[in-house]
Amino acid sequence: MNDSRNNRRTGDDPMKSSDVERPVGPGPIGGDIASILYGLGTRFSIPSLTGRHSSTLVMGFFALINGLVAIGVMSLAALATGQPLIFPSLGPTAFLLFYTPTAPAASPKNTLCGHAIGAGAGYLALVVFGLTEAGPALAEGVTPARVGAAALSLGLTSGVMVWAKVPHPPAGATTLIISLGILTKPTQLAVLMLAVALLVVQGFGINRLAGIDYPLWAKRKD
């Protein structure tokens, strides 16, 4: 009897999705990927997916496909609009949205506000050190001013996110992208924020389809 109950909990028989309990809490590798897979399998009546929601192999393929789709959508939007909608910091944000969607750091509030703080801090650092018209550090080399800008931007981003209670770790990459001179124009920063918003919309759609209580704005307090 114990083995039978264990099989139902872990989903060892992929074809008996009705016997598989919806996973609660962190999955076998942490995060909520197993729960998302279970929800999608249930939503679209795919017993094999529901039954194997806790398989590391299946979860890995889901993460792979999600990464392809997330950046693929951005790439298509970039081609259609002629705007550079693909930024390095979108990668870790995408992973957060689908790995730990119910964590506060992955909420729309933290994601949008975090990146906005990072963008603002990065641009302020460029202004303070007179680098708004300078080329990127990768092309012109690292100067004392560039070191100061990078340090100031990351420090400000970290501090303001904590003070505002909107931590979002990928914002640290955003601020360095700007303070290191890869993006320096206000219009570019606006496009960056548009890309972040599009990613949040995608995360909201997929997580809600899977039955994950992904918030409209901020994670509700327990």
What would you note in describing this structure?
With 222 residues, the chain is mostly helical. It has 2 domains: 2-54, no CATH class; 87-207. It is 63% helix and 0% strand. The longest helix is centred in the first third of the chain and has 26 residues, at 56-81. Mean pLDDT is 87; it is low at 1-18.
Could you give the topology of this structure?
Blueprint: H1 2-10, H2 33-43, H3 47-51, H4 56-81, H5 90-99, H6 108-128, H7 137-140, H8 144-163, H9 171-179, H10 186-209
Helix pairs in contact: 4-5, 5-10, 6-8, 6-9, 6-10, 8-9
List the total number of helices.
10
What characteristic shape results from the CA principal axes? elongated
Instruction: Spell out the helices and strands N to C.
Output: HHHHHHHHHH
**How large, in whole angstroms, is the Cα Rg?**
20 Å
Head-to-tail CA distance between termini: 35 Å
* Average pLDDT over all residues: 87
SS elements, strand count: 0
Coarse structural class: mainly alpha
User: How would you sum up the major sheet?
Assistant: none
The percentage of residues in β strands lies in under 5%
Number of domains: 2
> Ranges with pLDDT <50 over ≥5 residues?
1-18
